[in-house]
Design a protein that fits this description.
Length: about 375
Protein backbone atom coordinates (compact mmCIF):
# COMPACT_ATOMS: atom_id res chain seq x y z
CA UNK A 1 0.00 0.00 0.00
CA UNK A 2 0.91 3.65 -0.36
CA UNK A 3 0.55 5.98 2.63
CA UNK A 4 0.18 9.73 2.13
CA UNK A 5 1.35 11.79 5.12
CA UNK A 6 -0.07 15.29 5.37
CA UNK A 7 2.10 17.85 7.18
CA UNK A 8 0.54 21.21 8.04
CA UNK A 9 3.82 23.08 7.36
CA UNK A 10 6.83 21.42 5.74
CA UNK A 11 9.01 24.31 6.92
CA UNK A 12 8.10 23.79 10.58
CA UNK A 13 9.38 21.39 13.25
CA UNK A 14 6.10 19.47 12.89
CA UNK A 15 7.79 17.79 9.93
CA UNK A 16 9.87 15.87 12.48
CA UNK A 17 6.87 13.92 13.78
CA UNK A 18 5.51 13.34 10.25
CA UNK A 19 8.92 12.04 9.16
CA UNK A 20 9.07 9.75 12.21
CA UNK A 21 5.74 8.12 11.36
CA UNK A 22 6.65 7.92 7.67
CA UNK A 23 9.86 6.15 8.64
CA UNK A 24 7.89 3.64 10.72
CA UNK A 25 5.44 2.96 7.88
CA UNK A 26 8.17 2.75 5.23
CA UNK A 27 9.34 -0.58 6.64
CA UNK A 28 6.41 -2.17 4.82
CA UNK A 29 4.67 0.47 2.70
CA UNK A 30 5.44 3.11 0.12
CA UNK A 31 5.19 6.59 1.67
CA UNK A 32 5.01 10.23 0.59
CA UNK A 33 4.78 13.57 2.42
CA UNK A 34 2.46 16.36 1.30
CA UNK A 35 2.02 19.88 2.63
CA UNK A 36 2.42 23.63 2.22
CA UNK A 37 5.93 25.08 2.35
CA UNK A 38 7.31 28.54 3.05
CA UNK A 39 10.13 30.25 1.15
CA UNK A 40 12.79 29.03 3.59
CA UNK A 41 12.20 25.48 2.35
CA UNK A 42 12.02 22.18 4.21
CA UNK A 43 12.63 22.24 7.96
CA UNK A 44 16.41 22.21 8.22
CA UNK A 45 16.98 19.10 10.41
CA UNK A 46 15.19 16.83 7.91
CA UNK A 47 15.93 18.66 4.67
CA UNK A 48 17.50 15.45 3.29
CA UNK A 49 14.45 13.32 4.08
CA UNK A 50 14.62 10.14 1.95
CA UNK A 51 10.93 10.07 1.01
CA UNK A 52 9.08 11.76 -1.86
CA UNK A 53 7.79 15.20 -0.89
CA UNK A 54 5.01 17.09 -2.66
CA UNK A 55 5.17 20.71 -1.56
CA UNK A 56 2.82 23.61 -2.26
CA UNK A 57 3.36 27.33 -1.62
CA UNK A 58 1.91 28.55 1.68
CA UNK A 59 -0.39 31.52 1.19
CA UNK A 60 -3.13 33.36 3.03
CA UNK A 61 -6.78 33.29 2.10
CA UNK A 62 -8.21 33.84 -0.46
CA UNK A 63 -5.04 33.02 -2.44
CA UNK A 64 -4.72 29.71 -0.59
CA UNK A 65 -8.03 28.26 -1.82
CA UNK A 66 -6.66 26.99 -5.17
CA UNK A 67 -3.59 25.60 -3.36
CA UNK A 68 -5.89 23.54 -1.15
CA UNK A 69 -7.50 22.07 -4.25
CA UNK A 70 -4.12 21.10 -5.68
CA UNK A 71 -3.09 19.48 -2.41
CA UNK A 72 -6.25 17.37 -2.32
CA UNK A 73 -5.69 16.26 -5.92
CA UNK A 74 -2.07 15.34 -5.17
CA UNK A 75 -3.02 12.79 -2.51
CA UNK A 76 -2.89 9.35 -4.12
CA UNK A 77 -2.20 7.11 -1.15
CA UNK A 78 -4.38 4.15 -0.19
CA UNK A 79 -4.42 5.56 3.35
CA UNK A 80 -4.00 9.17 4.48
CA UNK A 81 -2.24 10.08 7.73
CA UNK A 82 -2.85 13.70 8.76
CA UNK A 83 -0.21 14.94 11.18
CA UNK A 84 -1.65 17.54 13.59
CA UNK A 85 -5.17 18.88 14.06
CA UNK A 86 -4.58 21.71 11.62
CA UNK A 87 -6.65 22.68 8.59
CA UNK A 88 -3.71 22.34 6.15
CA UNK A 89 -3.17 18.73 7.24
CA UNK A 90 -6.20 17.18 8.93
CA UNK A 91 -8.62 19.55 7.19
CA UNK A 92 -7.18 18.55 3.82
CA UNK A 93 -7.42 14.89 4.84
CA UNK A 94 -11.08 15.25 5.79
CA UNK A 95 -11.89 16.90 2.47
CA UNK A 96 -10.09 14.11 0.62
CA UNK A 97 -12.04 11.60 2.70
CA UNK A 98 -15.33 13.27 1.84
CA UNK A 99 -14.53 13.41 -1.88
CA UNK A 100 -13.18 9.84 -1.98
CA UNK A 101 -14.94 7.72 0.62
CA UNK A 102 -12.68 4.73 -0.01
CA UNK A 103 -9.57 6.47 1.35
CA UNK A 104 -9.21 5.83 5.12
CA UNK A 105 -7.99 8.69 7.30
CA UNK A 106 -5.75 8.47 10.38
CA UNK A 107 -5.05 11.61 12.41
CA UNK A 108 -1.91 12.01 14.50
CA UNK A 109 -2.30 14.56 17.33
CA UNK A 110 1.03 15.41 18.94
CA UNK A 111 0.15 18.85 20.38
CA UNK A 112 -2.91 20.60 21.74
CA UNK A 113 -3.12 23.08 18.89
CA UNK A 114 -5.73 25.32 20.52
CA UNK A 115 -3.43 25.68 23.52
CA UNK A 116 -0.99 27.66 21.38
CA UNK A 117 -3.68 30.31 20.90
CA UNK A 118 -4.75 30.61 24.53
CA UNK A 119 -1.58 31.84 26.25
CA UNK A 120 -1.91 35.53 25.34
CA UNK A 121 -4.95 36.45 27.44
CA UNK A 122 -8.49 37.39 26.46
CA UNK A 123 -7.77 40.16 23.95
CA UNK A 124 -4.92 38.24 22.39
CA UNK A 125 -7.25 35.31 21.84
CA UNK A 126 -9.90 37.62 20.36
CA UNK A 127 -7.35 39.06 17.97
CA UNK A 128 -6.29 35.60 16.87
CA UNK A 129 -9.92 34.58 16.41
CA UNK A 130 -10.41 37.45 13.96
CA UNK A 131 -7.35 36.51 11.89
CA UNK A 132 -9.42 34.81 9.20
CA UNK A 133 -6.82 35.04 6.45
CA UNK A 134 -4.53 32.52 8.16
CA UNK A 135 -5.37 29.01 6.86
CA UNK A 136 -4.33 27.60 10.24
CA UNK A 137 -5.91 30.37 12.31
CA UNK A 138 -7.78 29.93 15.57
CA UNK A 139 -11.34 29.56 14.16
CA UNK A 140 -10.32 26.87 11.69
CA UNK A 141 -8.14 25.06 14.23
CA UNK A 142 -11.07 25.07 16.68
CA UNK A 143 -13.18 23.41 13.98
CA UNK A 144 -10.60 20.65 13.57
CA UNK A 145 -11.14 19.50 17.17
CA UNK A 146 -14.80 18.96 16.36
CA UNK A 147 -13.94 16.93 13.26
CA UNK A 148 -11.81 14.32 15.05
CA UNK A 149 -14.64 11.80 14.91
CA UNK A 150 -14.35 11.86 11.11
CA UNK A 151 -11.02 10.01 11.35
CA UNK A 152 -10.90 6.22 11.09
CA UNK A 153 -8.21 6.10 13.81
CA UNK A 154 -6.58 8.56 16.19
CA UNK A 155 -2.96 8.66 17.38
CA UNK A 156 -1.83 10.84 20.28
CA UNK A 157 1.62 11.58 21.71
CA UNK A 158 0.77 12.02 25.42
CA UNK A 159 -1.91 11.30 28.01
CA UNK A 160 -3.37 14.81 28.09
CA UNK A 161 -4.26 14.40 24.41
CA UNK A 162 -5.50 10.87 25.02
CA UNK A 163 -7.89 12.13 27.69
CA UNK A 164 -9.11 14.87 25.37
CA UNK A 165 -9.36 12.95 22.09
CA UNK A 166 -9.06 9.24 23.03
CA UNK A 167 -6.92 7.37 20.54
CA UNK A 168 -3.79 5.23 20.69
CA UNK A 169 -0.72 6.57 22.46
CA UNK A 170 2.50 6.52 20.41
CA UNK A 171 5.38 8.41 21.99
CA UNK A 172 8.19 9.95 19.92
CA UNK A 173 10.20 6.74 19.75
CA UNK A 174 13.85 6.58 18.73
CA UNK A 175 16.25 4.15 17.05
CA UNK A 176 18.32 3.20 20.08
CA UNK A 177 20.80 1.30 17.89
CA UNK A 178 21.63 4.50 16.01
CA UNK A 179 21.49 6.66 19.14
CA UNK A 180 24.09 4.60 20.99
CA UNK A 181 26.60 6.56 23.10
CA UNK A 182 29.28 3.92 22.44
CA UNK A 183 29.34 5.00 18.79
CA UNK A 184 30.29 8.64 19.46
CA UNK A 185 33.26 10.52 20.86
CA UNK A 186 31.90 13.21 23.15
CA UNK A 187 35.31 14.68 23.93
CA UNK A 188 36.15 15.06 20.25
CA UNK A 189 32.85 16.92 19.72
CA UNK A 190 33.61 19.16 22.70
CA UNK A 191 36.95 20.02 21.11
CA UNK A 192 35.26 20.72 17.79
CA UNK A 193 32.95 23.16 19.57
CA UNK A 194 35.86 24.73 21.43
CA UNK A 195 34.37 23.63 24.76
CA UNK A 196 36.71 20.84 25.87
CA UNK A 197 37.28 22.48 29.26
CA UNK A 198 33.59 23.15 29.88
CA UNK A 199 30.77 21.28 31.55
CA UNK A 200 27.93 21.40 29.03
CA UNK A 201 24.24 21.72 29.87
CA UNK A 202 22.59 21.23 26.49
CA UNK A 203 19.19 22.39 25.24
CA UNK A 204 17.96 20.77 22.03
CA UNK A 205 15.15 21.84 19.74
CA UNK A 206 13.22 24.94 18.80
CA UNK A 207 13.77 27.40 21.68
CA UNK A 208 10.30 28.87 22.01
CA UNK A 209 9.40 30.71 25.21
CA UNK A 210 7.17 27.96 26.61
CA UNK A 211 10.08 25.51 26.43
CA UNK A 212 11.76 27.35 29.28
CA UNK A 213 15.07 28.22 27.65
CA UNK A 214 15.30 31.51 29.56
CA UNK A 215 14.72 29.69 32.85
CA UNK A 216 17.88 27.79 32.01
CA UNK A 217 19.76 31.06 31.51
CA UNK A 218 18.41 32.34 34.83
CA UNK A 219 19.60 29.12 36.48
CA UNK A 220 23.19 30.20 35.80
CA UNK A 221 22.72 32.77 38.58
CA UNK A 222 22.78 29.87 41.06
CA UNK A 223 25.52 27.80 39.45
CA UNK A 224 28.80 29.14 40.80
CA UNK A 225 31.11 26.87 38.79
CA UNK A 226 32.29 29.10 35.90
CA UNK A 227 33.07 26.07 33.73
CA UNK A 228 29.35 25.22 33.46
CA UNK A 229 27.87 26.58 30.24
CA UNK A 230 24.54 26.32 28.44
CA UNK A 231 24.71 25.18 24.82
CA UNK A 232 21.57 25.66 22.73
CA UNK A 233 21.26 23.64 19.52
CA UNK A 234 18.58 24.57 17.04
CA UNK A 235 18.35 28.34 17.45
CA UNK A 236 19.09 31.44 15.46
CA UNK A 237 18.66 35.16 15.74
CA UNK A 238 15.39 34.70 17.66
CA UNK A 239 17.47 34.33 20.82
CA UNK A 240 19.56 37.48 20.34
CA UNK A 241 17.42 39.67 22.60
CA UNK A 242 17.18 36.98 25.26
CA UNK A 243 20.94 36.49 25.32
CA UNK A 244 21.42 40.26 25.65
CA UNK A 245 19.31 40.18 28.81
CA UNK A 246 21.88 37.78 30.25
CA UNK A 247 24.93 39.69 29.04
CA UNK A 248 26.97 38.88 32.15
CA UNK A 249 26.82 35.19 31.22
CA UNK A 250 27.71 35.68 27.56
CA UNK A 251 30.84 33.53 27.95
CA UNK A 252 28.70 30.75 29.47
CA UNK A 253 26.04 30.67 26.73
CA UNK A 254 26.70 29.23 23.26
CA UNK A 255 24.04 29.26 20.54
CA UNK A 256 24.31 26.81 17.65
CA UNK A 257 22.04 26.63 14.58
CA UNK A 258 19.78 23.75 13.60
CA UNK A 259 21.64 20.59 12.68
CA UNK A 260 20.43 17.64 10.56
CA UNK A 261 18.94 14.77 12.53
CA UNK A 262 21.75 12.53 11.29
CA UNK A 263 24.33 14.77 13.01
CA UNK A 264 22.38 15.26 16.22
CA UNK A 265 23.79 12.26 18.14
CA UNK A 266 27.32 13.58 17.63
CA UNK A 267 26.42 16.93 19.15
CA UNK A 268 24.42 15.24 21.89
CA UNK A 269 27.45 13.13 22.83
CA UNK A 270 29.20 16.33 23.97
CA UNK A 271 26.51 17.08 26.58
CA UNK A 272 27.19 16.43 30.25
CA UNK A 273 23.53 17.17 30.99
CA UNK A 274 20.48 17.55 28.76
CA UNK A 275 17.95 20.10 30.04
CA UNK A 276 14.25 20.05 29.18
CA UNK A 277 12.86 22.97 31.24
CA UNK A 278 9.27 23.08 29.94
CA UNK A 279 7.11 25.80 31.49
CA UNK A 280 3.56 25.12 32.73
CA UNK A 281 1.43 26.86 30.08
CA UNK A 282 -1.41 26.05 27.73
CA UNK A 283 1.28 25.45 25.09
CA UNK A 284 2.94 22.65 27.06
CA UNK A 285 -0.11 20.99 28.65
CA UNK A 286 -0.53 18.74 25.62
CA UNK A 287 3.11 18.52 24.55
CA UNK A 288 5.67 15.78 25.07
CA UNK A 289 9.19 16.98 24.13
CA UNK A 290 10.69 14.66 21.52
CA UNK A 291 14.26 15.44 22.56
CA UNK A 292 13.82 13.67 25.88
CA UNK A 293 13.92 10.38 24.00
CA UNK A 294 17.13 11.33 22.15
CA UNK A 295 18.74 12.14 25.50
CA UNK A 296 17.51 8.92 27.10
CA UNK A 297 18.80 6.79 24.24
CA UNK A 298 22.20 8.50 24.51
CA UNK A 299 22.33 7.73 28.28
CA UNK A 300 22.52 11.37 29.28
CA UNK A 301 21.64 12.73 32.73
CA UNK A 302 18.39 14.63 32.16
CA UNK A 303 17.08 17.62 34.07
CA UNK A 304 13.42 18.23 33.25
CA UNK A 305 10.31 19.81 34.71
CA UNK A 306 7.14 18.14 36.00
CA UNK A 307 5.04 18.94 32.94
CA UNK A 308 2.87 16.66 30.78
CA UNK A 309 4.12 13.03 30.71
CA UNK A 310 7.74 13.88 31.53
CA UNK A 311 7.69 12.37 35.07
CA UNK A 312 6.06 9.17 33.81
CA UNK A 313 8.42 8.81 30.85
CA UNK A 314 11.57 9.42 32.90
CA UNK A 315 10.51 7.39 35.91
CA UNK A 316 13.43 7.30 38.36
CA UNK A 317 15.97 7.87 35.59
CA UNK A 318 16.12 11.66 35.58
CA UNK A 319 16.14 14.75 37.77
CA UNK A 320 12.87 16.65 38.09
CA UNK A 321 12.19 20.28 39.01
CA UNK A 322 9.00 22.27 39.26
CA UNK A 323 8.23 24.30 36.13
CA UNK A 324 9.09 28.02 36.08
CA UNK A 325 11.71 27.52 38.80
CA UNK A 326 15.28 28.41 37.71
CA UNK A 327 16.40 27.82 41.30
CA UNK A 328 15.31 24.18 41.22
CA UNK A 329 16.90 23.72 37.79
CA UNK A 330 20.16 25.08 39.18
CA UNK A 331 19.93 22.81 42.23
CA UNK A 332 19.46 19.71 40.04
CA UNK A 333 22.34 20.72 37.75
CA UNK A 334 24.63 21.29 40.73
CA UNK A 335 23.57 17.92 42.17
CA UNK A 336 24.55 16.14 38.95
CA UNK A 337 27.98 17.74 38.74
CA UNK A 338 28.60 17.12 42.44
CA UNK A 339 27.59 13.45 42.20
CA UNK A 340 28.84 12.17 38.83
CA UNK A 341 28.59 8.45 39.67
CA UNK A 342 24.88 8.71 40.52
CA UNK A 343 24.31 10.81 37.39
CA UNK A 344 26.04 8.17 35.26
CA UNK A 345 23.85 5.43 36.76
CA UNK A 346 20.67 7.38 36.03
CA UNK A 347 21.80 8.05 32.48
CA UNK A 348 22.46 4.35 31.91
CA UNK A 349 19.05 3.51 33.40
CA UNK A 350 17.42 6.06 31.07
CA UNK A 351 18.95 4.32 28.06
CA UNK A 352 17.71 0.90 29.20
CA UNK A 353 14.25 2.37 29.77
CA UNK A 354 14.28 3.87 26.28
CA UNK A 355 15.34 0.55 24.76
CA UNK A 356 12.55 -1.28 26.59
CA UNK A 357 9.68 1.19 26.18
CA UNK A 358 10.46 3.84 23.56
CA UNK A 359 12.49 2.13 20.85
CA UNK A 360 11.59 2.68 17.20
CA UNK A 361 10.66 -0.98 16.81
CA UNK A 362 7.78 -0.47 19.27
CA UNK A 363 6.39 2.41 17.19
CA UNK A 364 6.82 0.43 13.98
CA UNK A 365 4.90 -2.57 15.31
CA UNK A 366 2.07 -0.49 16.76
CA UNK A 367 1.69 1.84 13.80
CA UNK A 368 1.87 -0.92 11.18
CA UNK A 369 -0.81 -2.87 13.08
CA UNK A 370 -3.02 0.22 13.11
CA UNK A 371 -2.56 0.71 9.35
CA UNK A 372 -3.46 -2.93 8.71
CA UNK A 373 -6.55 -2.71 10.94
CA UNK A 374 -7.78 0.49 9.28
CA UNK A 375 -7.17 -0.92 5.81
CA UNK A 376 -9.06 -4.14 6.58
CA UNK A 377 -11.94 -2.15 8.05
CA UNK A 378 -12.25 -0.20 4.80
CA UNK A 379 -11.76 -3.27 2.60
CA UNK A 380 -8.25 -2.48 1.31
Amino acid sequence: MKISFLCFDLSDNSLGRAALLAQAASKVHEVELIGPIKPRGLWEPVKDIPFPVKSFPWKRYPAFFPVLGKMIQAIDGDIVVACKLRPTSFGVGVMKNILSRKVPLIVDIDDWELGFYLHSGFWGTVGRALNLSNPNGLPYTWLMEHWVRRADAVIVSNRFLQRRFSGTLFYHCRDTDALDPEKFDGLAMKKKLGLESRKIVMFLGTPRAHKGIEDLFFALENISDPSVCVVVIGAGKELDEMVKRHEKFKDRIKILPKVPFAELPGYLSAADIVAIPQRATSDTAGQMPAKIFDAMSMAKPIVATRVSDIPEVLGECGYLAEPDSPEQLASAINDIFNNPEEAHKRGASARRRCQDAYDMKILEDGFLNMIETVAMRRGH
